[in-house]
Amino acid sequence: PTSHIDEMELSQLRESKRLLIIIFAALFVASGIPVWWKTTEVYRATPPFDHVTEWREGTRWPLYNDTLFHDHLSTSTHALRPSLSYHLTFTLVNADPSTSYLPSWEFSQIYNHYFSSLLSSFSPLAEFTVDSLVMHYASLEKRPSYDPAAKVHYINEHDLPSYINPSEWKLDYSAVTTPTLNFIVFIPPHQMYPLHIKTSSPSAPYDNSNGFIIPQWGGIVIHNPPFSSNASGPVPLPLGVSDLSHAMEVFISQLHTLLGVPLPPQTAKSLLPSQEVMYALRKHFLASHINTTLSTLSSLNDLIDSLPNIVVLDNIQTQVHTAVAGLELAHANLLASDVDGALRASQVALSSAESAFFDMNMLSLLYFPDEHKYAIYTPLFLPVCFPILAGLIQECKQRKEKTKKLKSRKYI
């Protein structure tokens, strides 16, 4: 009887153990896995990308295909692409102040005289910021040639990059994220006075502008101040509006070229662009902004679809919605022949699209694969899973042994 009672108690303990294992396993499956799934879930808002494909294919806005996208202004390869803003840096570079001049300038007066009105006329197209620098000690890469007949030093126009390399001058430009145009007034050392740019034209062997353009970077003008052979040391050289009139006029011409703005004819009384030119520029910038916005939104959509683990926050959704609304408003204004309103709406759309694409919160979690999740959560779940798995394995072994015993009794 005692052994029979012991077997019953042992059987009850096994049943209780089996029940506990089942309960723990059920709790783990019913609560642990959903909690893990929820805590590792990536939040993804749903930006409105529905119409981007239609817009890019031209089926939603046929007006853009007919009258806008194919009406770009013909621009030079020297020009920067249209942007929401530009930064202009003017630098006065003195090659050797130890034996010649110590130049200085009142750039605010120069800017107000030559550039204030011009940049104001360009303000509907983009925002312009300006700063100025004065730099000393900037040598040429090689010594220029000398023309004894004309008594000038010269650099052949085809050899300019091998003589003048602004990247070697280590100019201290402020860090800006907007496209930057650089304009440099270069004063050569006194032993190279005067320094000119030689052309291949026999009728005009030396370039009257004495300057050149670096495509999509800026322009340089060589300025030769009056040479004083009696100067025994550095001489202060204040440069004002009249002293730099030639250099600034060349810079104005270079600025037109670098922005893709046609120059006014020589007979024009003003250097400001005409109404016809500004209208063409507005449409050109409008077309570029819309194309860039659509391309940016399409790239953002592809990025989000290709990376299921990337976080898409609500501010991304808001920015995309603002960009889409800006595109719709630009189209509505264009239908009403309001090019200025369409341009302003396209600027808002492009700014919002770029803000969404380059959002730091999204980029910071761009590379977070599933392997990282497993590496983080495995040390937490493994101690919980191990006793349950060990109990299940032991229970399976006991069931196999019990089955074998029953089969052996039947044969007996």
Tell me briefly what this model is:
With 412 residues, this protein is of the alpha/beta class. It contains twelve helices and ten strands.
Question: Which descriptors apply to this entry?
Answer:
single chain; 412 residues; alpha/beta; 5-stranded mixed beta sheet; 3-stranded mixed beta sheet
How far is the first residue's CA from the last residue's CA? 24 Å
**Which blocks of ≥5 consecutive residues have pLDDT under 50?**
none
DSSP strand content? 5-15%
Mean pLDDT: 80
Assign a percent range to the helix content. 40-55%
Largest sheet: 5 strands, mixed
Tally of contiguous helical segments: 12
Structural class label: alpha/beta
User: What is the total tally of β strands?
Assistant: 10
- Strand adjacency order, main sheet: 3-1-6-9-8
Shape call: elongated
SSE arrangement, N to C: HHHEEHHEEEHEEEEEHHHHHH
Radius of gyration: 37 Å
Structure, explained:
This protein has 412 residues and is an alpha/beta fold. It has twelve helices and ten strands. It has a five-stranded mixed β-sheet with strand order 3-1-6-9-8, with helices on one face. Strands 4-5-7 form a three-stranded mixed β-sheet, with no helix packed on it. A two-stranded parallel ribbon has the order 2-10. Helix 1 packs antiparallel against helix 12 and helix 8 runs parallel beside helix 10. The protein starts with a helix and ends with a helix. The relative contact order is 0.13.
